[in-house]
Structures are given as structure tokens and as C-alpha cells.
Write a structure and sequence with these properties.
The chain is α+β, with helices and mostly antiparallel strands. The chain contains 18 helices and 28 strands.
């Protein structure tokens, strides 16, 4: 059998694709401040490059948890040893990697496609190998299409090339995947190109989901790791023993955690997840991909709930990951006009099980030797002499707008193409999709005043870290027309800078756009933050039934009722059951509401003392369907 590439269609239990919010993302990565425990290089790179905002993106937060059988276009690479299935429509994700002789699936192949709120733009999917470019977090295109074309090497080996323009960092990403005839590993060559003149902060991590079980051991060539438990400290610890537990077996930990392996210079860069027989997935790369990480959800009730939420029952997984920096809190400076590239390989590794599950030094030595046999260092050569072929799938038109050699202009890009050609941006309501970049700011700065152009001028100024200039543009826009979009931007700017009257601005914006549920959510949050719970409840009571039925709005209603002393209303909402489709990873809203409600009930109008709180928690444990706690 020779290497083949074919188009396929997967039928999966899937929710509808997430729709985008009309509200631009003015906040940044929300990286933790005050983080301690990092060394000098790491501290410098943690402080460097955190984006001021996530513009030009809007959230992908409009989805539910109603699933049905849906067809998903896929591209399959196959040889005698492996079958690799990619989903170009979902960030180019490697969805499945099957070892053909044994029939073994090497990745966590999620039985469903269910968005959940874990990415920078909200929507994210669990499973497979996810490519992450941009800033700390799951990248903006994780639930967006990439351009996919077929190439061919001189010997006839087909290559899947996926490309897109990442708009926040203004970088071009290219992934080339191929399976030479007889190869036991899938090769993926990644390149990142900075087409601009200015230095750009760069972040990359390949996130690899693999099945989790009691006998799975994660091995990497390191004796230490930086432990991060979602608090405010990175701690360099000896690995794998920590607190009397061997952390290389994720099934033995009760809480979610990250371990960033401190791989010494001169060692090959690899990571593997191997079962009791010493077999499992390995990922190895050339040296530019420096970092390796283990992530697990933990065995606590919250971790189990997250696993079920993301993949359904009985579909446990962990992640082994590989990145440009040593941790995911860092960004690296990339010069203008530069291109960075590396090659990754994925396949089934087999090593002596007694060594794999023996002492840590024995495991590292045995797995390292097996890696060298499976993937000799000289075999990780970049692609050369590939010839272009047919277009398989199309991504966005943003690269074409920027003059890059892929894609075609679509409806979102046409207003901006008209601005470039005529000097005038067409006025539209809702506004045109946001854009950032120096050439677009220059055109908007020179644009005759109208509310729409000044709205976008405020966005590009804000993206450049100029909140005062952004506010000036938005205030000028309001003198030309009072639109909900500008009112909301002024309100969000007030929240981020701690100035102004956010609630009143959002109330007016909501009156002007009452059907935008995201605006309802922001208005309710602002009223609660300003201790105006009664007004929040009045607003909820006026909502259309379809908005009031949304889980996120029910949660805010319950929080407002709690603050307003309407405990019966809270109890009714909790008993009825709230399902918040876009519950954020690490969010404690549900458990906080549950315990606060029962503590107040237990206090019977009196003070909530530590004794009262303890009794309430003991007599009213958190139900499993509300338990998303990431600490055991």
C-alpha cells in the first residue's frame, strides 16, 4: 500500500457550530498577575507579550448542548501503518490517529462534537491534537476553518497543507502533514511567518489528548517540572514524586494540574503516554519546539464532571503537550519578516513495560531509546520540493484581504476592501466585522466622521493599547448616533479601566438592542456589580421567554435573587436545574451559588457563622451536575 490522501465525511453526535457574538472582545488574555516561582527567563517572558485585547475577534459563545447526528468534512492520510483523520473546519485538528495493524486509536477520539467555554473566544472542543497559535489559551481559530490543499512530493507522497492568517498577532500559520509509505509515524511540519516589519509576541502549543486509565504513565526526559495548580504560583518540583504521589500516573491525582517538564539542554524533545504493556502515543519534534507538558483533570468529582461535560460518559482523557516556550504563560519575541519552523512526529511507541513502569530513570532511558528507534533524529527533515495541487477546503477571506496568497474575499471582508479602494467604509448596522492593523488604523484615522467609522477607529485604537484614544472616538461616535454597539464599548472600557458609569450605559444599550442576549448578560452582570440586584430582577422579568430560558441568564437571575434576599426564587431555580452551556473553565459560579443559598437558609435570617456554613455544606453537598470544581 502506498501513501494516500482522500476526502471523507464523519458522522458525529454534534451540537450546531458556534455562532459569533456581535460584541468585540476588548479584554486581553486575563493572565494571572502576581505569579511567583518562575525563574528569570520565564518571568521575563511571562511579562512580555500579553495582548491588551483579543481584538479583532468577537466571542464564539452562541451554542447549546443539543446534539444530533451531523456530517463533518474530513481529510484522511493513510499508509500501511497509520490512518490520520483531520478536521480542517475545526482549526485543522488531528481528530484521529489509528494504528492499522492493531486497530488501536492512539488519540482521545471524542465521540461527540460539543463546544464548551475553554478557548480565548469561548468555544472549544476536546479531543485529538489541537494546534494553538496566538496567546496564552486555546487559539482563536480552534473552532474556525483553515484553508486546506493537497500537495505532492516528487515520489508521489501526498501532503495535506493547511494555512490561515491569525488576525490578533497578524501571523501566517502553515501545517504540512504527510505519511510516507511504510512510515510508523505521522509527520507534521509547522511554520509560522511574520509578514510585518515589527516584532510580534508568539505563542504555540500542540495539545494532544490521549485516553486516560489507571495504568497510563506519562514519560518525558526530565527530572523536574514546573507545577501549576491554577493558583498564583509556579513551583519547580522534583518529578514524578510530589506529596507522596507519583504524578506521572495522572489517575492518582485528585485535582486538575499542569506539569511543565524542565527538559535539560541537549536532550531530545519528546513526550509519551504509555499503558501497562508499555505501548501508547509518542510525540517527538525537532528542538525548536522546546516545552513539554502534562495536563490532567484529576479524579475529583469536578474533574469527572468536566470530562463528562466535554466528551460524554466513560470518555476520560488527559493531555500531553508541546510548545515553543517552557510554559504556556510565556510568549517569545519574533522579529519582523521572520519564519520559524519545526517538525513533529506522532505514532505508536512500544517499550519494555517493566522499565516503563519501573523507576523514573529507567522509564526515561527505556522510552528515550524506543523513541530513537522509532524516529531517528535524522528522519525529522522538513518538506522540500512539494508541488501544489487541488484545493480541498476553504478558510476565511482575511488573508486575501491582507494580500496573502490564499483565500477569497467574502462578505465580512468586502466593506474593508471598499475602504481600501475608495477611502470610505460603508455604514452598516450591526457594524462590520472588526479589524486591526496599522494600515487599517491609518485609513480610519483619515476617514470622514460618521458613527460607524468612529466606532471602528475606537476598536483599532483600543487594540493598540490606547484606551483614551478609543474612548474619544467612541464618544464622538455617540454625538453622531446613539447606537448600542458604541454604548457597550464605552461600558466595557469603563469596566476594564475602573471608570465611568457602566450600568447606565449598558441599560441604554440593552434598551436599543434587547434581542442580543450577550448584551443582556453584560447588563445583568454590571447591575449586580453595582449592587442593583432589584433592577437586575426587573430586567429579567421583562425578557422574552427565549432569553429568560438561557442557562447563563438563569444563573444571573439566581445570583440577583440571592443578593436581593429572594431565597425562594433562588431555590426554585436551583431545583429546576440550570445548564450553562458556556460555563467557563475554572468558573466557580454554580458551587458558590449553591453553598451561599444553603448557608443563608441554614442561618434562618441570622449570621452565617463558620459553624453554620460547615453544617450547610455537610447537610447539602453539591450535586454532581453542579460540580465543576477543578480542585479536589
Amino acid at each position: 500500500m502506498t501513501s494516500k490522501l482522500r476526502l471523507d465525511v464523519l458522522t458525529l453526535s454534534a451540537a450546531a457550530a458556534p455562532a459569533s457574538s456581535p460584541l468585540p472582545l476588548l479584554y486581553g488574555t486575563r493572565a494571572r498577575s502576581g505569579l511567583t516561582g518562575a525563574d528569570e527567563e520565564m518571568t521575563r517572558q511571562i511579562r512580555y507579550g500579553q495582548p491588551y485585547s483579543l481584538l479583532p475577534y468577537t466571542a464564539q459563545d452562541d451554542y447549546d448542548r443539543t446534539r444530533e447526528e451531523r456530517e463533518q468534512p474530513a481529510v484522511v492520510l493513510e499508509n500501511e501503518v497509520l490512518t490520520a483523520t483531520f478536521l480542517p473546519g475545526h482549526g485543522g485538528r488531528l481528530w484521529s490517529l489509528v494504528h492499522r495493524p492493531s486497530g488501536r486509536e492512539l488519540l482521545h477520539r471524542n465521540p461527540m462534537l460539543q463546544p464548551a467555554n475553554l478557548a480565548l473566544r469561548d468555544a472549544w472542543l476536546a479531543g485529538g491534537v489541537e494546534w494553538n497559535l496566538g496567546a496564552t489559551g486555546h487559539w482563536p481559530l480552534t473552532c474556525a476553518p483553515l484553508h486546506a490543499v493537497r500537495l505532492e512530493l516528487p515520489d508521489g507522497t501526498p501532503v495535506l497543507r493547511m494555512t490561515e492568517f491569525e488576525r490578533m498577532r497578524r501571523l501566517v500559520v502553515q501545517l504540512d502533514a504527510w505519511l510516507p509509505a511504510g512510515s510508523p509515524v505521522l509527520r507534521v511540519a509547522v511554520s509560522i511567518h511574520n509578514p510585518g516589519e515589527e516584532e510580534t509576541p508568539v505563542y504555540w502549543w500542540s495539545n494532544i489528548a490521549v485516553p486516560e486509565a489507571a495504568d497510563i504513565r506519562v514519560v518525558a526526559p526530565a527530572e523536574q517540572a514546573y507545577h501549576f495548580d491554577y493558583g498564583s504560583r509556579l513551583g519547580l518540583v522534583d518529578f514524578p514524586e510530589l506529596g507522596g504521589v507519583d504524578r506521572s500516573y495522572p489517575d492518582r491525582a485528585d485535582s486538575a494540574a499542569d506539569y511543565f517538564f524542565e527538559i535539560p539542554a541537549g536532550r531530545r524533545r519528546w513526550i509519551a503516554a504509555l499503558d501497562g504493556s508499555g505501548r501508547g502515543l509518542v510525540q517527538v519534534s525537532t528542538d525548536r519546539l522546546r516545552g513539554r507538558k502534562l495536563f490532567h483533570w484529576g479524579t475529583g468529582s469536578g474533574g469527572r464532571r468536566w470530562q463528562e461535560w466535554l466528551s460524554g460518559p466513560s470518555a476520560r482523557y488527559l493531555e500531553i503537550q508541546a510548545g515553543l516556550a517552557r510554559t504556556q504563560l510565556e510568549h517569545l519575541p519574533m522579529p519582523g519578516r521572520a519564519t520559524w519552523s519545526w517538525v513533529e512526529a506522532y505514532g505508536l511507541l512500544e517499550a519494555d513495560p517493566d522499565a516503563v513502569h519501573g523507576s523514573w530513570p529507567a522509564a526515561v532511558e527505556a522510552v528515550g531509546a524506543a523513541v530513537d528507534r522509532l524516529v531517528p533524529p535524522s528522519s525529522l527533515e522538513p518538506l522540500s520540493d512539494a508541488t501544489a495541487g487541488e484545493v480541498l477546503m476553504r478558510g476565511s477571506g482575511w488573508g486575501a484581504l491582507e494580500g496573502l496568497p490564499f483565500g477569497e474575499l467574502g462578505p465580512e471582508q468586502r466593506p474593508w476592501a471598499e475602504l481600501r479602494e475608495t477611502g470610505r467604509l460603508p455604514v452598516c448596522d450591526p457594524p462590520a466585522a472588526p479589524i486591526t492593523g496599522p494600515q487599517w488604523r491609518a485609513l480610519l484615522e483619515a476617514h470622514p466622521a460618521d458613527w460607524h467609522a468612529r466606532y471602528h477607529l475606537g476598536l483599532v485604537r483600543h487594540a493598540d493599547g490606547d484606551p483614551e484614544g478609543a474612548r474619544a472616538a467612541w464618544e464622538e461616535s455617540l454625538t453622531l448616533a446613539r447606537t448600542p454597539w458604541v454604548l457597550r464599548c464605552l461600558a466595557e472600557s469603563s469596566r476594564l479601566t475602573g471608570t465611568g458609569h457602566r450600568s447606565d450605559l449598558l441599560l441604554e444599550a440593552h434598551r436599543r438592542a434587547p434581542t442580543v442576549w450577550q448584551l443582556t448578560v453584560e447588563t445583568l452582570r454590571a447591575l449586580l456589580a453595582d449592587s442593583r440586584a432589584g433592577e437586575a430582577l426587573d430586567l429579567v422579568d421583562r425578557l422574552a421567554p427565549e432569553q429568560r430560558a438561557l442557562g447563563r441568564i438563569q444563573l444571573l437571575e439566581a445570583e440577583a435573587a440571592l443578593a436581593h434576599g429572594e431565597l425562594d426564587r433562588v431555590g426554585e431555580l436551583l431545583a429546576r436545574g440550570m445548564e450553562i452551556a458556556n460555563l467557563r473553565e475554572g468558573e466557580d459560579s454554580l458551587d458558590a451559588l449553591w453553598f451561599a443559598y444553603h448557608e443563608l437558609r441554614e442561618a434562618r435570617g441570622g449570621e452565617v457563622t463558620p459553624e453554620v456554613a460547615a453544617r450547610a455544606r455537610r447537610e447539602h453537598p453539591l450535586p454532581a451536575h453542579y460540580d465543576f470544581r477543578m480542585r479536589g
